[in-house]
Amino acid sequence: MRPLAAHIDLDALRHNYRIAADCAPQSRSVAVIKADAYGHGALACARALEPLAPALAVASIEEALALRAGGITRPVVLLEGFFDADELALIDEHGFWVSVHSDWQVEALLAFTPRRPIPVWLKVDSGMHRLGFEPARVERVWRRLAAASQVGELHLMSHFATADAGDSGYFETQLETVKALSRTLEAPLCLANSPATLAHRAAHGAWNRPGVMLYGSNPLEVDNAIATSLRPVMSLRSQIISLREIAAGEPVGYGGRWRAARPSKIAVVAAGYGDGVDRHAADGTPVLVDGQRCAIVGRVSMDMLTVDVTEVASAAIGSEVVLWGESAGGARLSVDEVARHCDTISYTLLTGVLPRVPRYYSGA
Q1: How many other CB atoms are there within 10 angstroms of residue 298's CB atom?
Q2: Short-list 93, 147, 98, 99, CA closest to 115
Q3: Model pLDDT, residue 16
Q4: Is the per-residue pLDDT at 168 higher than 80?
Q5: Catalytic residue among 34, 123, 179, 215
Q6: DSSP state of 214
Q7: For residue 325, what are the CA distances in angstroms to 164, 215, 235?
Q8: How far apart are CA 162 and CA 172, in angstroms?
Q9: In angstroms, rounded to a whole number, what is the distance separating the alpha carbons of residues 155 and 202?
């Protein structure tokens, strides 16, 4: 079998969830497992987290229904709400909770007759300018929903644009906007994403929404002591499938972008952009070979990439190569560091691991 695989450590996932919960012991933490649990496998992650998390969150009803089909009984929040009024029958049948962010959703919900009231998270556009009601309109919408028999538990929800940044001025503006509404309406809040969960205690509400931190990625642009205790959940590992010696000045890979500055030993690794490894990985992007740091050299190909292993005496056919995560010997390479070399963020690397890469689970 091709040696590339994503190894998913469910014990690390539970460890990270407990850290998120401990950050805000007065809040309830919904575990965000949208986008197939950020590429880790939604059903396996949901089963691991169900005994810990009072609710789970996904982006769409398709994701929610897959959890129910897999036996998950915890409440599931639809973070983008429903996309068509016809979904309300399924929401009612399966007991999903919904975000409501648009007038048409409000009208559809109030025209529907559920068997039991539907919990609603009313979304405020506090400054992200993506989804949600403008603050000046929120009170009227809130009072309509609060008076409706179709609506169960009601919360205010918003999303921060800059919670991950060191400059918190805009963050504070957003936070105060929503807190002012909360005071007026006596409304419980759901505000904190991963960066706010880690670094902004003032944003902790009745519910928090930790996402990428559950998978071991630090979402903050600044140092954070709590984030250093997160453990990687996905370890993307492959092996060396070929080795060759090249002379100084020889190119490697498409376009000859990288040329050897010295006589070099080049390893070919079974992993490429057809698996989700970012083609934009720059020369020098780190990997671990037999637990030792090495660098990608040359452009990533569809099924292979090349690594300079000149300094790794043990490098041989079959040597372990870690693209990110943890080696079999315990050495670690942060997906956040790899993402910086690819001029992207960890979210895109984790969610970009393609289906042809098998997932193997431990700690189930």
Answers
A1: 22
A2: 93
A3: 98
A4: no
A5: 34
A6: G
A7: 22, 11, 4
A8: 9
A9: 17
Q: Among candidates 40, 37, 41, which has minimal Cα distance to 57?
A: 37
Q: C-alpha angle 156/57/222, rounded to 5°?
A: 80
Q: Is 123 a catalytic residue?
A: no
pLDDT in tens, 26-57: 999 999 999 999 999 999 999 999 999 999 99
Tokens matching residue 334: 């942060």
* Confidence at 256, pLDDT banded by 50, 70, 90: very high
| Marked catalytic residue, from 17, 179, 254, 347 | 254
| Residue with the larger pLDDT of the pair 103 and 168 | 103
Q: Report yes or no on whether pTM surpasses 0.90.
A: yes
Tokens of 70: 């897999």
Please tell me the distance from the alpha carbon of residue 251 to that of residue 321, in angstroms, as a whole number: 22
Instruction: Report DSSP state, residue 3.
Output: -
Q: Cα dihedral sign for 321, 322, 326, 331?
A: positive
Euclidean distance between CA atoms 295 and 288, whole angstroms: 8
222 confidence band (pLDDT: 50, 70, 90): confident
> φ, ψ for residue 264 (rounded to 5)?
-135, 155
* Burial of 147 per CB tally in 10 Å (0-12, 13-18, 19+): exposed
Q: Is 347 a catalytic residue?
A: no
User: Quick one: tokens of 17?
Assistant: 């969830």
Checking 177-186 for CB contacts under 8 A at 24+ apart, the result is 177/124, 177/126, 177/127, 177/135, 178/124, 178/126, 181/124, 181/135, 181/138, 181/139, 181/142, 181/156, 182/156, 184/139, 185/138, 185/139, 185/142, 185/143, 185/156
| Per-residue pLDDT, 363 | 95
pLDDT of amino acid 52: 98
Q: 10 Å Cβ neighbour count for 277?
A: 32
Torsion of the alpha carbons at 292, 324, 211 and 136, rounded to the nearest 10: 100
Cβ neighbours for 321, distance < 8 A, ≥ 6 positions apart = 237, 238, 239, 240, 267, 269, 271, 287, 288, 289, 307
Q: How far apart are CA 43 and CA 54, in angstroms?
A: 16
Task: With beta carbons less than 8 A apart as the criterion, state whether 325 and 232 touch.
Answer: yes
